[in-house]
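Appendix B, record 7
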Amino acid sequence: MRIISGQYKSRKIVAPKNLPVRPTTDMAKESLFNIINNNYYFDDVSVLDLFAGTGNISYEFASRGTENITCVDQDFGCIKFINQTAEKFNMPINTIKSDVFKYLEKASGNYDIIFADPPYNFSDDQFSKIPELIFANNLLSESGLLIIEHSKHTNLEDQPYYSYTKSYGGNAFSFFEILEE
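Structure tokens (predicted):
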């Protein structure tokens, strides 16, 4: 995987092979960040990266100037790798080793962008629990965006606060936001 843009543009990051991850493809990541770039100033946003895996998405935010990034993953190896990479590049990334659902049940704070990349084999109930907990606990700012990455075969259109979906190859990103009445 590589960082697409910003201070660390073109840097390759090689994750250990034993991590239980499926990093977002460079093509999908580049398209996603083009959408985000049109709506936010990276140095002004706070980011919550759920099911962070290798930290791929967080590194991209940090490279583009985001100073407030929190990664949550339950795998110790993933958290260790993110911490090592963040330290190597002097990136402002905080990590939390936790089951994402347990974290969301107790979390407080307000984020401009929440990115979730759960396993593609999640059930519909597991997928729906993500926006349910985020919006119930007011974790997203009024002008914020929740982005859930999933297989193009998963449909999240019936979820509350759903806005739209963009597909790239086998990947899809569903966007959720607080829409003004």
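Remarks on this record: DSSP finds five helices and seven strands in the chain. The two ends are 40 Å apart (CA to CA).
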